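We treat protein structure as text, and this decision shapes the records that our systems exchange. Below, we set out a record of this kind in full and without editing:

***
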Amino acid sequence: MRYFLLIALSTHSFGHNFLSPLATLRSAHSTLSHAFTRRRPYPTIQMEETLRKALAEKQSAVDSQGNAVRALKAAKAAKADVDAAIEALNGLKLEKASIEKQLQAAVSGAGDGSLNREAFRQTVNNTLERRLFYIPSFKIYRGVAGLYDYGPPGCAVKSNVLGFWRQHFVLEENMLEVDCPCVTPEVVLKASGHVDKFTDLMVKDEKTGTCYRADHLLKDFCNEKLQKDLSITAEKAAELKHVLAVLDDLSSEELGAKIKEYGITAPDTKNPLSDPYPFNLMFQTSIGPSGLSPGYMRPETAQGIFVNFKDLYYYNGNKLPFAAAQIGQAFRNEISPRQGLLRVREFTLAEIEHFVDPENKSHPKFSEVANLEFLMFPREEQMSGHSAKKIPLGEAVSRGIVNNETLGYFIGRVYLFLTRLGIDEDRLRFRQHLANEMAHYAADCWDAEIESSYGWIECVGIADRSAYDLRAHTDKSGVALVAQEKFSEPREVEKLVINPVKKELGLAFKGNQRMVVEALEAMNEKEALEMKATLESKGETEFLVCTLGKNVTITKSMVTISKEIKKEHQRVFTPSVIEPSFGIGRIIYCLYEHSFYTRPSKAGDEQLNVFRFPPLVAPIKCTVFPLVQNQQYEEVAKVISQSLTTAGISHKIDITGTSIGKRYARTDELGVPFAITVDSTSSVTIRERDSKDQIRVDVEQAATVIKEVTDGRTTWADVWSTFPHQSSASADDE
């Protein structure tokens, strides 16, 4: 009896202490569910982690109580004691089942009235395709994976996003915009490293030859286990999440080992897979009819800016810092494109290359963004298993989390750009690259990641690429892509002087003399001093000449290396570059998801789709409806339409006899923010899409009011407080 009481008390105590946070969790879940109805259509990833931990604790309690029941039975305890212990066990099992149900809802993206992630995504995509925002390319020929056409509203949204990008970055930052060819000679991409290294790892079905992207198969396996296998332990879940976190950094050997360890097979046939091997993602072509000049469709727009640095620097008055920008198409021959607009073979990039003195990366306008506070995910937080947290940008720079002010300034500007477009700030984070993710030359890199139904999607990369790109093209082309800082007074400096003895080199290398001379002169100080020490001790040394692709023997008589005091009137250096790179299609798709919601019709018999686009990006700013088919109303509608056209406002006039409610619903589904309804010859109503509130204005004022609100000179709240209100009950609003 005493044994049972101890067990019962411990079980009761455990249950009481656990139920309190569980009740808190349920309360939080309820609160979050209300928030999702308003802002987020599916539960957060953090909720799943909380529930999985709770499930593990509850399973431990069930196991402990099960052991207690077995112990009581073995001890032949009183029936009442055994029954009480069994009742407690059943209670714990019910609690465990409740948590399992919540976890199943969280991992599948559903719960408390929220849409399942896949169902939500399907609803959004069906609406986008039906309303012609975008459709598969070459649809009548069954399409081609990874290629899409933008329809009229999609083109308008894209044009508005790019227009705002130009205003926000190019105009406000006085950038130099260029437009370079899509076809790029091989030598350019050889210098940049794309020819040798722009690859993804691919595996093949060993029987059918079907190709798959290796990391995608591993990612799908991990996600499938996390979402559908509730029996996995918290440790196993942590392992799978770690694999997902470091997925991009796995070598071909490590990736192949994980595929074998988890028993991953070809998705369609379940056949075994080959070992991963690299596949270059560039589309190859030839320039000219001879086929002797190889080229590629550019995988990014940045190289066109780098190769034009010398002319752009001159155009800018030989002054740093300055930025060049380019919007254009890029091409990547994806192994297995999927996820709609998120992973395609032809896409629009908007890229900025901000050239700066590597010794001074401060920014004169950093104070304008220093007080911004948003979700940041530094590498230390990632490595310790923590989540992203809000950090003031000024603090992130002062603490060295962000490497420098210029990089921080662009992170802040990217945040403002995305949130003003309509991206939910609570589903936007800036994730710092882990040390093993960054190229050896990079000083610091951050990705703006947006949460969608697919998870966190990298949409903007902001990187301090050091001087790598300009140096690479300098070495390959022989043209110095450098900047100068002129001194007000000459400075005496100790300079390393490398003097190749051309006579000796000519005798030794004959026709290759020039390439050896250039390689010797291009040595950095460390290489030159090491060569000098070796020549003095041994009389000769092996030296790699990249342009020859082999080592040559350099003797002491072939080169002199010394340090001399020289007067300098200027400093010549290779600028560093800060590069924000925007995937426009990805941003637009995430904007579609963040803007989409449903609401019941007036009759309550159906759910109506709405895109809550800000006026800034809405494909059509305004619609004009005569309330009923009436010649006088139609004439007024045409007058208003002409006024809107003159004011440069995109709009649509609808004089069909369809009910006004159905016309409102049609335009809400296109994300049109305002609707002008003509119900008299002297005044009209203006309806706001999300609140469905209406005001009444004179016919002559309608275009002016719409212009001021859509241009951002005033807000709907200001308009609402200025003009008479109109009851929506007088119109058949949906």
User: Anything to note?
Assistant: Confidence is low (pLDDT under 50) at residues 1-39. The two ends are 68 Å apart (CA to CA). Residues 243 and 453 are 20 Å apart (CA to CA). Residues 2-38 form the longest helix (37 residues).
